[in-house]
Amino acid sequence: MIANPQASGLTPDEYLAWEREQPIKHEYMDGEVYAMTGGTLTHNDITLNLYSQLRPHLRKRGCRINVADVKVQVSQRGPYFYPDVVVSCDERDRRATEAIQYPKLIVEVLSPSTAGFDRGDKFRFYRRISTLQEYVLIDAEKVGIDCYRKTSGGKWELTAYPDDVADEENPILELVSLDFQCPLALVYEEVELPEPSHRWHE
After folding, report:
1. Interval 49-69: pLDDT, tens
2. What are the backbone dihedrals phi and psi of residue 54, each rounded to the nearest 5 degrees, phi first?
3. DSSP string, 96-113
4. Could you give phi then psi for residue 57, rounded to 5 degrees?
5. Cis omega before residue 79 (within 30°)?
6. Closest to 58 measured CA to CA, from 83, 82, 99, 93
7. In contact, 83 and 107? CB cutoff 8 Å
């Protein structure tokens, strides 16, 4: 993300009005707006693969799923973020036009420039959303998914795929909040991952 000094010090309402007129997307935190950088083909392919697997399952459950161009509102004061995939099963979001406020699942596909923020401060903000039950981080450099689940006691527990599953040869991604399972291979189907020597490190 790149800060925009020309749109500094905005209130949430001012940000929303300003954002509607912009040719590119901007996220919002503490009065500041940040331009969204473009994703890679790998990033896009992973996002669409997961969306394709989830959509038929969610249609039967009355949930809505959105990708990339839909904001999530953490609170009335912000922040506002654009996750790669967001699922809401809350009736209050069914007719939302500005932003999703009651997500059940949020997915971010990691990139070198945003991975640290997605794992750190962004997750800290997302945890403030009372309806959020799972936060999923998908590696775009190698096969690997970190799924954080909120327990009944309000704690967040990590399951790493494929490392924490019994069958590492044919690992299955499970999203408990949506009663959904699919092979990890389908999330990465026809995705061209970089050679190991070119992978980034946090």
Report:
1. 999 999 999 988 989 999 988
2. -80, -35
3. -SS-B-S-SEEEEE--TT
4. -65, -40
5. yes
6. 93
7. yes
Which residues share a beta bridge with 35? 2, 26
pLDDT at 1: 53
Structure tokens, 29: 């935190």
- CATH number, domain of 139, equals 3.90.1570.10
Q: Over 80: is that where the pLDDT of 139 sits?
A: yes
Q: Which domain holds residue 28?
A: 1-36
136 and 78 in a common domain: yes
- The helix/strand/coil state of 184 is helix
The mean of the pLDDT values for the chain is 90
Which positions ≥6 away from 6 have C-beta within 8 Å? none
Rounded to two decimals, what is the model's pTM?
0.91
How many domains does the structure of the chain reveal? 2
